[in-house]
Each structure stands twice: as structure tokens, then as C-alpha cells.
Amino acid sequence: MLSIAFSTLRRRRHALAGTFVALSLGVAMTAAMGLALAATLSPAHQPEPQRFADARAVILPERLPSVGPLRRPLEASRGLPPDVAARVRAAVPAVADRTFPAHVVGDGPSSVGHPWSVARFGGYRLTAGTAPRGSGEIVLAGGGARPGDRVRVVTATAERAYTVSGLTGPVGYEHAVFFADAEAARLSPRVDALAVTGSPDAARQAAGTSARVLTGDARHDADPDPDRERRALDDTGVLLGVAAGITGFVAVFVVASTFALAVAQRRRELALLRVIGATPRQVRRMLTAESLLLGVLASVTGCALAPLCARFLGRRLVDHRLAPSGFTVPLSAWPLAIAFLTGPAVALLGVVAASRRAGRVRPAEALRESSVESRVMTPVRWLLGAAALGSGLATMAATAIGDPASAANRKGYTPAVMLLITGAALLAPVLVPWLARLLTWPLSRSAGATGMLVRENALAAARRTASVAAPVLVTVGLAGSLLGTSYSVDATKAAEARQSVRSDFVVRPTAGDAVSDVVLERVRAVPGVDAVPSQRTALYAIGDGGRLRRYEAEIVRGSDLGRAARLDLRAGSIAGLGENALVVDEEWGRRPGDVVHFRLADGTRADARVAAVMKSGLDDGRAYLTSGSLTGGSLTGGYLAGGTSRVGRIDVIVRPGTDRAVVARDLRATTQGLGVEIVPARDAAGGADGTGRTGGTGRSSWLGILVTLGIALAYCGISIASTLAMAAADRSRDQAVLRLSGATPVQVVCAALGEAVLAVCVGVVPALGVSAVSLAGFWVALSRVTGATSLVVPWLPLAAAAAACALVALPATLVPTVSSLRSRPGAGAGLRG
């Protein structure tokens, strides 16, 4: 049987070309995903230090204070303890760094202030002028001014005029303003870091366990937003993992379909083997050997293509900001080894059902089945299709009833969608006759024969039609389900946020996370408005199961809570709230009166009593923390120490009888050039881009889904073309018979194209059904979590995916059809005239 398998591959290479191409592409994509995933885990992508690249070591505050027995890195800093800074500076030469808001009025994005003495460690070099020599001089990075110019600088608490003494070249990681060291210490007394120029070992010994001493590449932790690159790599890894899973699903699905078609086309050949004495086991062994050989050849080809695909994938991820700049995909052994084994494994999975069916056919029945498909559904296929469909529905029902909040997790919802698609595809041959009659009903009413030919060809070759429809079903079904759920989650979150809005405008920074007190004072001076300042922070507390959990919170004055936002309270009250009170959602598992021990984002210990509990939404784990003042108070004093205002945004409420248009004009005029923007509150809550996507995370998730769908679409497009190419041999005989019956070449071409379009439509209809079922289950789940459910049907992507499948199918049908029309009809039909 092995020699027969070799001979079959050689003699039937054109018929098996479609399966080989689909399998090779699947291996290449799997290997490319694996290589990119390995690159996200590689230490080679450790970013190089920037701000302190020329320092021998950097000393930062400890970021791992405990909450009870648990420890977790925190995201904000209180600065180095004064005794630690003094001890280190006494032991080794070190320069104090201070980081604080400093915005040059009218100079574009918000800037950050530093003392001039640390500029040399970050690659800053004077290009004009001199260093700042007094408290009234500054150095600017980049253009926009000249030495001697007078500019106004807005810091955390004041606005003051400074003289530009010098300029440096710009850097890519921040927009900086440098002050004289004494002035920087006045503006921000807190020491945020020490740049060590002496012995790192001596600095480590002096710092003890109260601070971190970073050397080498670890100095990157002192850069602005040091976790950004790591978060980007983590997001890229998650994206690639999901994409790899979907790619593997599509590969098995499509290859199984093409193998089934290839075996069905060989019924006459297999029947002759049975006639001459081949046993069912021998037939299965022959087909298994063929699939293994084909899988090995496809694996070799796919692994050879993988490095090119991986490099292309890496560039696209960087271009679309789904991976950090500088991300590359080097060669790695284990992804290629796994991908190489994937080829034979997928080939075996694809051929197993078809080989069992071929081996069971009796010799006499096989010759009769070679002309007409009498049965396209086997009991096993019925069972698997019903099981997959039932499992998908059961998974959705369990999610909607048992854990509806998890529906917002697209990764958790995707397996249910895959099960629905698998079930629909396995049962597709049953739907082909019904859909073919329904879709061709308008053609059957016409007098021409073309519509009748299209319908009867599809009915007579249900397996071939289903094989072409399968990749269409996958592509359109994934597009409708994944994009529909993604859009619906984002739109629901936006609607949820808009429902809670009471304010009219939001004043927020154009960059960074702080608004100066100067801006707050000017907003409060606008006639006819009330200003409600707040600041986002993170709270670290012990959650369910005894785990340390991070919660999103807003610090707001007790008297302001409820003025800018509408709270859906389930227990307790927010009336007369004092300082150090918590309003939490149901996810916290707390009740009014409970005392919560937690830490703020910088590790400040705090206790607060729960005053009220509000309803959880899609963004669960929320809280409001009251404070007497955003720039002081017993609770936030440690967090907001150093004279640095941490007002993150200002909600503006227009008083009754005041013209909103006039207020908007006054707000923009009074804050112009101060590094802030004025946004309508509902737009700020729902996403200013109008799409419902509410930030960088939503954008990354959305682009990640598009990347995944793009890969699936490319794979399915090639599968459609290869499946139609495999069917060309059978169609050439039918077309030759049509020619002998009097059909013109134009009629033959129209019938072939009509059959291809019908096959695409047969795939689109169940795909729409799968999308409708998945979105309906999703809507039920969301409705149990929030009253602001917004269901979005992605009509345009659905139409685009269906059109792309049709655009692939039409030329894939047209080329072999036109080629067959060049020969004599009698020769094409195997007849002699």
C-alpha cells in the first residue's frame, strides 16, 4: 500500500494540489505564529535604558510593599525615603532626579520637569545657549523657542515666566523641561531616583533593602512608563495565542473538508481497488499513508515559508502598534518543530473520516456511487455535527445563566463560536439541497436553462458544494461572531458609561495623567459652572479567595461624589459622606459598614469604611474613595506628597439657565495652551472617536481581532481556490457534455460562475445563522449584567468577508472553465465523434 500511495501522489498531484496548498499554508501560519510567540518571551526584547543610559546604576523606591502576607508590584511612587537618599549620597557620588508636571504654555503636548543635573544621563546635549544658572531659567528639549525668549510654564500648582537659557536636541521617550537644581527641588521636594556615578556595589550596600538598585538593562525600569513595552509584549502574546488557536481550528476544518472532497472524487478508483481484492483496512491504510506523505511534504514546504511569514507578521504588528517598536521575530527551533509535526497530524485528522467511509463501501456499490452521490451524511457525521452544535449552544447557555459577566471576555466566548461553526459545517450537506432550492428559486422562474443547471449541479454534487461552502462559513461566521461581540462589548461599555454621566464637559490632559491646579482655578472662574476634580488611582486589597487584587478607583471629595456621576446604589447611602469613605461595586463582596484595608497606587497604607455598594457592570471592581482635598488630607497626603497635584480630570457641570455653547467657548479660551482639552462628557465616557471603543486597550483588542480574521480570510481564500481547482477535473467532463448538448461557451461559463456564487451563498447563509445565534446568546448574557446593553451587528465586515470569498471563487472558477473550453467537446467528455 505504501508503493501505491507514492504512485497515487505522483499521478494525482493536480487533484491533491489543493489539499497540499491548504496544508502547507496551515503549517506556515502555525510556525509563523509560534515564532512570533517565542519572540515575545525572548529576553532579547528587553528594552535598553533611556533616561539613565549613561548612569552606572539607578536607585528607585521599592515597588513591592505587602498587603497582609501578599506582595505585588505597584504602579506609582512616593519617592525615595529621605534617609535612604542621604545615606546613598554620602556613600557614593549620586545625582538626585525629580520628576514633576511642567508644561510650556502653548507648546503642544504636556511636558515633564527635571533638574538639569540629570539631563546628561538621558542623552540630552545642549545645541544652543547655556545651562540654567538661576531659578528663573530653563532649558527646553527640542525646538519652539530660542535662547533668551521668555515663556510661561505651568507646573503642578502655579504658573510662572521663565527665560530660556538653552536648547537640547529632542528625545523620543519624553518632552522635557529642565530647571536649575534648586528650582526643581522647590517645585518637587520629593527625590524620585538617584543616578549613581560611583560604585554600584557601594550604592547597593548603602541603600539596603529600602530601595532598588538597578544596573545594566534593568535601568529601563527608571524610564517613563517602563512597563509599557512589557505590557505590549504581553498583549502581543495573548493576541498571537488566540490567533494561533483560531488558525489551527481553521486549518483542521479546511483540510478535513478538502480531504473529504479528494476522497469523494476518487470513488471510482477506490471501487476498482475493492473489486480486485483490496480489503477495507488496506484502503484505509493507503489513504492514511498518502495523508502522512502529503503532510510531511506540506510541513517541509510550510516550515521553509515560515520565516518569511513570521518577519512579515512582525512588521505588521509593529506598524499597527500591536507590538512595541523594535519587535523582531528571530528563528527558533521549537516553534518550527511543533509546526512540522502539525502537518502530518492535521492531515491524519482530515483523512480519518473520509478513509473510514471509503473503506466501508462494498465493491458493487462503489461503482454505482461513483456516478451519483446517494448519501453525503454518515451516522458519525450526524453525531459529530449534532454534538458540536449542541455543545456550542450549551456553552452559550451556561455562560448566559451561570456567569454572564464572563461573556465580555472574548477569549472565553470564542470556543463556543467555534463549536457552532463546526456543527453548522458538519451538517452543511443536509442544508445544501434546501438552500440551493431557496437561493435559486428566482432563477427557476425564468425561461432559461442556466438557472436550472446551476441548481441541479449543486444538488447532484452536494459534497462538492459543501466543501466550497465550508471555508466561506468559517470566514463569514468568525467575522460576524468575533467582530459582533467585540463591537457589542465596546458599545455596551460606552452606553454604560454614558448612562452614569451627570456632567456636561470634561477637562482632561492631552498627555500624561495630571491637570495643574492653575487649570482647576481657571475652570472654577468660568461663570455658570461647577467644577468637580477627581483622580484615577489603583487600590490593592485582598479580594475573594484571599488573592491580592487590583481595583480601579477614583479619588473625589465627599461633597462632590454623585454630582458628576450617576451611581446605581444597591445598599447604603452617599449622603453626608466625610473623608476616607469607600463606595464599591458588588464585585468587592463588601457591605456598608465594612472596613477595608488596602494600599494606594504608591503603596500608602489606608483603611476606609464602606459607605455604599453600587451595582457591578462590565467594568467590575470599581470604587470611589473620598478625600477632603485632592492635594492633601490624612488619607491621600502620602500619595499626593511633594507638592504635586494629582487632579486627573475636571468634570464641569453647567448650572441651570447657563448657555452650554457659551460655557464651552469660555472653557476653551481660558485653558488654551495649558496642555488640556475640553470634551463633551458623554463623548469622554463613550469614546471620542465615535466607535464605542474606549481607549488603547479596546483598539488593540479590535485590531487583534482584525489580524486574526485577516489570517483566517487569507487561509480560507486559498482553500476556496484550491477546492475549486480540485473540482475542475470533474466539471470539465460535465461542461463538455453541455457543449455536445448544444450549450454555447457563454452559457457554460455562466453556469459555472453561477454555481460558484451559489456555493458561496450556501456558506454565507449558515454563517449568518451562526452569527445571529452567537450574538443573541451574547445579548442575553450582557442583559443579565447591565441595563445598557447595546448589540451591534457588523454588517459592513460581514458583507466585505462574503464579497472577498466571492471574488476569490469567481476567478478560481473562471480560469479552469475557460481553459477547458479550448479543447474539443468530445475529447473533454471522453467521447469520440
From TrEMBL:
Annotated keywords: Cell membrane, Membrane, Transmembrane, Transmembrane helix
Matches recorded under Pfam families: FtsX
Membrane topology: Multi-pass membrane protein
Compartments, as annotated in UniProt: Cell membrane
Domain of life: Bacteria
Signal peptide location: none
Keyword Nucleus included in the entry's annotation: no
Keyword Glycoprotein in annotation: no
Transmembrane segments: 238-264, 291-313, 333-354, 382-401, 413-436, 702-727, 748-781, 793-815
Cited PANTHER family: ABC TRANSPORTER PERMEASE YTRF, MEMBRANE COMPONENT OF TRANSPORTER-RELATED
Name of the molecule in the record: FtsX-like permease family protein
Species of provenance: Actinomadura gamaensis
